[in-house]
Automatic annotation (TrEMBL):
Reaction it catalyzes: cytidine(34) in tRNA(Ile2) + L-lysine + ATP = lysidine(34) in tRNA(Ile2) + AMP + diphosphate + H(+)
GO CC list: cytoplasm
Protein name: tRNA(Ile)-lysidine synthase
Lineage, highest ranks first: Bacteria, Bacillati, Actinomycetota, Actinomycetes, Micrococcales
Domain notes: The N-terminal region contains the highly conserved SGGXDS motif, predicted to be a P-loop motif involved in ATP binding.
Subcellular location: Cytoplasm
Matching Pfam families: ATP_bind_3, TilS
Organism for this UniProt entry: Cryobacterium glaciale
tRNA(Ile)-lysidine/2-thiocytidine synthase N-terminal domain sequence ranges: 30-205
SUPFAM superfamilies membership: Adenine nucleotide alpha hydrolases-like, MesJ substrate recognition domain-like
Record EC number: 6.3.4.19
Gene3D superfamilies for this protein: 1.20.59.20, HUPs
Length: 326
């Protein structure tokens, strides 16, 4: 519950308010994704304060994943807290988390972001603020390293991705807890945050503490800085690849010589973007390298059939097309 007294401006409150201030729009409505945990609760309180000072509106969206007994009660308490902080409107959206083969964490995330899209459409808000912290960023990078998923995952989460805003990526999780204590707010503790069935929980509770103990403090901060540096490099390479694609792509075709003239980092991005942007197909690294071999290791091989796309080299041209009927 919110304290009736006005919280004094402690370092934690000042830091989090300042972080929120940098991402708030100049006008209109924003929503805070509130679970009731310390991260989102500190974010909600800081947003309510800063939005009031900026003369804009701030509301909240609470997503009930229906994965735990009593989840509706938890969502209801979060909604009451949001209203008590002065957030308006307050939406509680129930979702069904399906089993799409991606795992429970990914499936819940997909359902949650779909709910955010619905909230934006219903309210006309310009963005949704999420309470991801520097610690979440470090966990994301470490998981990406373990999966070998390349720079796309190692770049971590961006502070701004379309309407999704993450103002707390430079804030440690301990600071959000301190904010709540300083402001007289009582956060909810999600039992799933301690369930070792989830890979992120194992990273948080076991892997990162071991790294901190064995390598010294600051591992989490170093991982977050690595993500920031990789994001800058990756964004630059992405833009170069899209420039090549815009200049040389025509009717599903691009010259092999054009691709051969560029470094592999650009060449493979052009191939991936061609499949994604032009055909709606997402190639993994192995599939992308197989297409690139039509450029770098050409010895007369036939058409390459991948899920949702067919690529063939003919007269020095790579031709991308949708596979026809068998």
């Amino acid at each position: 519950m919110e304290s009736t007294r006005r919280p004094r401006l402690t370092p934690a409150i000042a830091d989090i308010r300042r972080a929120v201030r940098t991402l708030l729009p100049a006008e209109g409505l924003v929503l805070v994704a509130l679970s009731g945990g310390a991260d989102s609760l500190a974010l909600a309180a800081a947003t309510a304060f800063e939005a009031g000072r900026a003369g804009i509106r701030a509301g909240a969206v609470i997503v009930d994943h229906n994965l735990q007994a009593g989840s509706a009660d938890v969502a209801g308490r979060a909604a009451e807290t949001a209203s008590g902080l002065g957030l308006d409107p307050v939406l509680v959206l129930g979702v069904t988390v399906g089993d799409d083969g991606s795992g429970p964490e990914a499936a819940a995330r997909t359902s949650r972001y779909a709910a955010f899209d619905e909230a934006l459409e219903r309210t006309g808000a310009s963005g949704v603020l999420l309470g991801h912290t520097l610690d979440d960023q470090a966990e994301t990078v470490l998981l990406g390293l373990a999966r070998g998923s390349g720079p796309t995952s190692l770049r971590g989460m961006a502070a701004r991705t379309g309407p999704i805003l993450r103002p707390l990526l430079g804030i440690r999780r301990a600071e959000t807890r301190q904010f709540c204590a300083d402001a007289g707010l009582e956060p909810w503790t999600d039992p799933q945050n301690f369930d070792p069935r989830y890979a992120r929980v194992r990273v948080r509770e076991t892997v990162l503490p071991v790294l901190e103990r064995e390598l010294g403090p600051g591992v989490g901060l170093a991982l977050a800085r690595t993500a920031e540096a990789l994001r800058e490099d990756s964004d630059a390479l992405d833009e170069l690849a899209r420039t090549v694609l815009r200049a040389y792509w025509a009717d599903g075709r691009i010259a092999a010589a054009v691709l051969a003239a560029h470094p592999s980092a650009i060449r493979q991005r052009v191939i991936r973007f061609a499949a994604e942007e032009r055909h709606g197909v997402w190639l993994d690294r192995g599939q992308t390298l197989a297409v690139a071999a039509l450029v770098t290791d050409w010895h007369g091989q036939g058409a390459l059939s991948l899920p949702g796309i067919r690529v063939v080299r003919h007269d020095g041209i790579l031709i991308f097309s949708v596979p026809g009927p068998t």
